[in-house]
Amino acid sequence: MLRRVRRRLQGLYGRLLERELSGTPTHVAVIQDGNRRYADRQGKGTAAGHRAGAETTEAMLDWCSELGIEELTLYAFSTENFDRPPAEREELFDLIERKLYQFADDSNVHEERVRIRAIGQLYRLPPRVRTAIDYAEAQTENYDSQYLNVALGYGGRAELLDAARGIAGAVERGELAAADVDVEAVEERLSGGPARAVDLIIRTGGDERTSNFLPWHANGNEAAVFFCAPYWPEFSRVDFLRAIRTYQSRQESWQRTRTERALALLTAVGSDERARLLGRLRTENADIDLPDERVEEVDIELKAD
């Protein structure tokens, strides 16, 4: 009885959250933490925790599709995970291999035209996992409506180090001038990386750190970050909506700050240009409450001019 009531309340809360959302991120990246702790709490082996986490991953794909999120990156296996006990690594590789084939043959993936890609030091993975990656990528390589990036053998520092080495080699061979090393040159060498900058990072399991995840695509974009207590197998649609609300609040705060700075800069330009820019600010930010006192200051200065 209590479980049924709890489910109904969660459903109502979820619908309320969804009505409050005015926009969604384009690219969400998830650190799926807590599978092993979930299994321990259930009195089961680690493999059971990873299998339960895989079910949440499938649900996450559906939620992203429903909300129009165009790109999802999942931190499935980090470079640090290579240090786990051999038996647990093999369990993870078994699960990853199976899920890659499953996703590649899933009718929903093909109906939604989801492109599957793996990122990371893939050469360190067992051949059977690399074969599954090749299959999933080949089955979906012509799709571009949505992207699912699976981070395997991934570490942000290693990714940037590989890019730096590639650039250094190109400069040494005379293929690239040192003066021409720019953002584009780096991104070209982040092979197989996300198509878009990351807007929102989610980490489950209670830890409040981003664990070397997508430093170029997330930190460079000042991505919003949402930390939550539920282990990954327990992560729900309501938790996901709360994460998106965090992103939305951050975007509104950032836009308001940018507008306030723009208003401050208006005092440094001539009156004609100031009037034009003030009108543009009001038009472009009609959905945001501009700081009235600052607008009044600018209006007073315009009249004085």
Can you characterise this structure?
With 305 residues, the chain is of the alpha/beta class. The protein has two domains: 25-235, Undecaprenyl pyrophosphate synthetase; 256-304. Helices cover 57% and strands 12% of the residues. It is built from twelve helices and six strands. It has helices at residues 2-20, 35-42, 46-67, 86-105, 107-111, 127-140, 156-172, 183-188, 215-219, 237-266, 271-284, 292-304, and strands at residues 27-31, 71-78, 114-119, 146-154, 200-203, 224-227. It has a six-stranded parallel sheet, with helices on both faces. Strand 5, helix 9 and strand 6 form a beta-alpha-beta unit. The longest helix has 30 residues, at 237-266. The model is unreliable at 295-305 (pLDDT under 50). The active site is at 33, 81 (proton acceptor). Belongs to the UPP synthase family. Homodimer. Its EC number is 2.5.1.89. It is an enzyme of class 2 (transferase).
Blueprint (SSEs and pairs):
Elements: H1 2-20, E1 27-31, H2 35-42, H3 46-67, E2 71-78, H4 86-105, H5 107-111, E3 114-119, H6 127-140, E4 146-154, H7 156-172, H8 183-188, E5 200-203, H9 215-219, E6 224-227, H10 237-266, H11 271-284, H12 292-304
Parallel strand pairs: 1-2, 1-5, 2-4, 3-4, 5-6
Helix pairs in contact: 1-10, 2-3, 3-4, 4-6, 10-11, 11-12
Binding site for substrate: 34-37, 50, 78-80, 82, 84, 203, 209-211
Active site: 33, 81
Keywords: Magnesium, Metal-binding, Transferase
